[in-house]
Specification:
Blueprint (H helix, E strand, L loop, with lengths): L11 E4 L4 E3 L7 E6 L6 H12 L1 H6 L2 E7 L3 H11 L4 E4 L4 H5 L3 E6 L2 E6 L2 E5 L5 E6 L6 H9 L1
Parallel strand pairs: 3-4, 4-5
Antiparallel strand pairs: 1-2, 1-5, 3-8, 6-7, 8-9
Length: 151
C-alpha cells in the first residue's frame, strides 16, 4: 500500500462513458479511489451499492468517489448502468494505475496463488496527498467508515 502523507500518483483513465478522468481534475476536493478486481461480482456490487446509497453524503463532504478495475469500458458501463452508480468507474486494462497505487500483486484463494487486484481504497485530500489508506475493506461497511473518517 502507499503510505499516508505521500503524494497520490496522478492518473488519466477512461470512465464507463469513454470520457477521460484525471486525479488532477479534482483539485480542491477529496477523492476516494476504490480498487476492485472485477465488475458485477457479489462483494464489489455490494460495496458499490453502499457508495451509491451514500453518494449524497459524500457530495456533502466535498468528496468524489472513483472506482478502478482492469475491466473494459463496456463492462464498466454495464456495471454502472445496472447498479445506477452516479460516480465514475475507470477502466485500467493495462493495470498501470492499479500498480502505481500498489493495488496489484500476489493473492491466495483456496490454496492457489495468483496475481490479482487487492481490495483497497485511498482517501486523497484536496491537495492530492493520501490522507487515509484502507486495506482489506469490508464491502458493506467501507463507505460508512470512510464517511466517519472524513468527519
Amino acid at each position: 500500500m502507499l503510505e499516508v502523507g505521500n503524494k497520490a500518483p496522478n492518473f488519466t483513465l477512461d470512465n464507463q462513458d469513454g470520457n477521460s478522468v484525471s486525479l488532477n481534475d479534482f483539485k480542491g476536493k477529496k477523492v476516494l479511489v476504490w480498487f476492485y478486481p472485477k465488475a458485477s461480482t457479489p462483494g464489489w456490487t455490494i460495496e458499490g451499492q453502499v457508495f451509491r446509497d451514500e453518494y449524497k453524503n459524500f457530495n456533502g463532504k466535498n468528496t468524489i468517489i472513483i472506482g478502478i478495475s482492469a475491466d473494459s469500458i463496456k463492462t464498466q458501463k454495464n456495471f454502472c448502468t445496472k447498479q445506477g452508480f452516479p460516480f465514475s468507474l475507470l477502466s485500467d486494462p493495462e493495470k498501470a494505475t492499479i500498480k502505481a497505487y500498489k493495488a496489484y500483486g500476489m493473492k491466495k484463494f483456496m490454496g492457489k496463488e495468483y496475481q490479482g487486484i487487492y481490495r483497497i481504497s485511498y482517501l486523497i485530500d484536496e491537495n492530492g496527498i493520501i490522507e487515509k489508506a484502507y486495506e482489506k475493506v469490508k464491502p458493506k461497511e467501507h463507505a460508512i467508515k470512510v464517511l466517519e473518517d472524513i468527519g
